[in-house]
Amino acid sequence: MASENYSLHGGVAVLTLNNPPVNAMGHAVRQELAANLDAAWSDPAVKAIVIIGAGKLFCGGADVKAFNTPASRAEPSSRTIVRRIEESAKPVIAAIHGSALGLGLEFAMGCHYRIAQRGAKLGLPEVKLGLLPGGGGTQRLPRLAGVEAAVRMIIEGDPASADEALGMGLVDEVAAGELLPAALAFAGRVAQRSDHPVASQRQAPAPADPKFFETQRARIAAGKRGLPAPLECLACIEAAVTLPFDEGMKFERERFDVLVNGTESKALRHLFLAERAAAKIAGLPTDTPATEVRKVGVIGAGTMGGGIAMSFASAGIEVVLLETKPEALDRGLATIRKNYAGTVAKGKLAQEEADRRVARIRPTLEMADLAGADLVIEAVFEDMGVKKELFGKLDALCKKGAVLATNTSRLDVNEIAASTSRPASVIGLHFFSPANVMRLVEVVRGRETSPEVIATSMTVVRKIGKLPVLVGVCDGFVGNRMVAQYAREAEFLLEEGATPQQVDGALKKFGLAMGRFAMSDLAGLDISWSSRKRQAATRPAHLRYSRVADRLCELGRFGQKTGAGFYKYEAGSRTPVPDPLVDEIIEQCAKEAGITRRAVSDGEIVERCIYALVNEGAKVLEEGIAQRSSDIDLIYVNGYGFPAWRGGPMFYADTVGLAQVYERIREFHRQHGEFWTPAPLLKRLVEEGKSFKDFVPE
Length: 698
Ligand code: NAD
Fold this sequence. Notes:
This protein is an alpha/beta fold.
């Protein structure tokens, strides 16, 4: 029985994939499609069949939530449907607009013909989820478009435009105008033919270079840190060239099953779903109105302000950039121009576009120029007095309804808000350095921040292509609060017997983009030194405190910018070189603290540093500073170089098993005292046999 998504246009049956928002090919969609195909096949009036997507796209792929569940393979599977299409005497045409991604494209490749609307995007992004296209994509794409195109689309996960797809043989026609009429006309033409092309019956052309697969394997092994998915993708593409179709399909299925059950893919899928979950805010209805941000004021053209201004200008939003002194403004603008010029030089941006972006940033020394801004972001020195005075002035000046944001790394957003008469309009927008590059923004909700201001902030951050994650107010918010625990353990490990290079080496082997000490040298040791000096008077005397970093700073070693920090640097080089002087300082500090140095294993380094994050993460979660454990994972992966294939610190702890993590934390508590007090939430979850992912705040 045909459904409402079946219609007849002359002799052409049009079947619509209709499963908002992305027409994912879940089980119900496949059942309906199979039934509609049966109806079309059995109706003698139907001469050709067009399959098209409802709404904005053809099909966004499989249902990511259904991976590893029986529903993903339940009959009719997409393989079964495609097999029947290939046997059909009536031509089946996939008509693609918007995008055809993953299983959506694999399915389209199983149709006899493909017509794509200009502007459509065709892609197999499974590798980005640690998978391979398991619906025949690795076997059909090389047959349709050749191995080079397959490598690009399957291993790199790069989509092809409709015109590129035409050039590579992946589609048969590009429709410049409306898709359905073009598809109907195309169907009318091919209906006359007696037989129709079937991808699986073609021979995949062998690559011209006999060493092609060998070279690719070496390239991937070197570039993708030995992650399994890209190599498995390559093996499948090679199978498409060397094996008969059915055997290639069997091979693809086996390799897919290995990947889908592996930790890497589970971690990457976790992060994929985490990004969607992060957009949902408890107590904030999805229809909360967001103000459109047309003009942004940025205060301070230093490291952060410059990058923030670029992020908005690059997204087409007008920026007014305020500084106190002409020199500072000139310096800031020069850096912005240099950054854009760098992108132009790399061939990633046209000169004219770079010029348009720079022109969107209007420099000023007059605060009054901020009056018309819909959003003002303050990025001045990290000093509460300076910020409060500034917010007082903004309060007097800015238009009603403007969002007043601070980029503070750790100051109390509530206190800043209290210096205005409109605390409901104040919020933290914590960008990460370099702000024009880093995707993460912690959106810090103050006690009185209004739902509209939160909605506006989340929306505008997404609009500039970044990832907003909502957090609450506490010292350091989520990321910096947790990283302080990790940094402390790394320093303690030095005194206990490790070297900076050993600690960094172990953390990099675990997968972090940078080690703790190389990272500090890059960021600069002076900022945390001055905050430690401020806190010295109130630091509890009974708590252990490592003096190593203070000693380095006393010697003027502020990291890369001074040529030395935890490492030394040759002039003009960013490569950290171990420094015997640092070892001496460490030994001296250990002696003064009465610590007998011992051999520290790499395993202990990883556990001490990473479990310190996990234990603090549990506290952050329990206090409601983060909405869910997956938000913490997003923050760590996108802001702190935590390896995506491990899913973030909380997911990693779940994978290790919370009982085991808790046991180690209790052991560290016995050995090292109060810093390791286990988070009550961790204890509770272990007792209940649960994981962080099961935690739902009350
Ligand atoms: P910076 O010293 O590089 O820049 C601050 C700029 O603000 C200077 O150019 C200064 O002239 C200007 N300024 C000071 N008072 C001003 C005023 N009243 N009006 C206009 N301009 C004024 O500092 P930064 O590293 O860009 O940090 C800025 C803020 O961002 C701080 O709150 C910091 O904690 C936060 N932050 C920094 C980083 C980082 O990695 N650097 C990361 C996240 C957040």
